[in-house]
Amino acid sequence: xxxxxxxxxxxxxxxxxxxxxxxxxxxxxxxxxxxxxxxxxxxxxxxxxxxxxxxxxxxxxxxxxxxxxxxxxxxxxxxxxxxxxxxxxxxxxxxxxxxxxxxxxxxxxxxxxxxxxxxxxxxxxxxxxxxxxxxxxxxxxxxxxxxxxxxxxxxxxxxxxxxxxxxxxxxxxxxxxxxxxxxxxxxxxxxxxxxxxxxxxxxxxxxxxxxxxxxxxxxxxxxxxxxxxxxxxxxxxxxxxxxxxxxxxxxxxxxxxxxxxxxxxxxxxxxxxxxxxxxxxxxxxxxxxxxxxxxxxxxxxxxxxxxxxxxxxxxxxxxxx
Length: 321
Ligand code: XMP
Prior knowledge:
CATH class of the largest domain: Alpha Beta
Strand order of the largest sheet: 3-2-1-4-5
CATH superfamily of the largest domain: HUPs
Order of helices and strands: HEHEHEHHEHHEHHHEEEEHE
CATH architecture of the largest domain: 3-Layer(aba) Sandwich
Shape: globular
Radius of gyration: 20 Å
Strand content: 15-25%
Bound molecules: xanthosine-5'-monophosphate
Helix content: 40-55%
Number of strands: 10
Structural class: alpha/beta
Largest sheet: 5 strands, parallel
């Protein structure tokens, strides 16, 4: 399938919304559609487009995979309640953690998350609800990187030759596939979503699993979750495109209370970028870095080393796995 990018300068958000609402409504007709909302700008935009097009013909779920940031499910549900959209939380923590058990290879981890998400969780929801369509916020950068073989973005299916109807029992509709992040933010704003949503830094579909090098266990997720909270608190005023904490697989020797402490390493990345295609590290003030190192080594159990990544994308990518 050939996908034509709509560049930001060519995008008229109101026209785009009108066209997509019509397309979704004529494709789905009187059938039922479902979608997963993570609270990021892409899935939030799709949720609003879908509800404009289908009203009660769209059922929205928050998939609690155990890999999201602290307090996220409740935050997202109450934000959308205020917009008149009811969101049901689906507890799938056990399924995700058991699929990830023992996996250390990045692409195998990504593949496991995709499988649980689309086959197990959505397959079941579709069967129970009788839905025929899944709406999702795949964007142009996701397709480009997956097709180029850089990394498998969790939401890429058709472009990898996966027939969702045959494999999972539903068709996928991707209204944002021609846009990059900057275009999606414009559409989100035009849809009346709050600044808190349309300005939110991107967050990957595989969630914190994309920030854990090595095995993803509930305990390791807790570590990266705490470090993420600190990084987000300290860097939210930087205006950077994205900032993240990464848990490394290797341990290093540290000292605590005069004794050897063979402990964990957290890496911080903070990116300047327009659309995630290329990026460069933010030149953070040393005082900020110093505070981050202090807070993370004091507040996150087991961490003895904090580093700041100074590599550009390429050759780096934004997320570590
Ligand atoms: P990378 O790491 O490929 O990330 O340089 C580019 C942008 O995409 C986000 N990202 C993902 N988003 N599913 C997503 O929806 C994914 O599997 C995924 N992996 C990375 C990343 O956070 C960055 O903004």
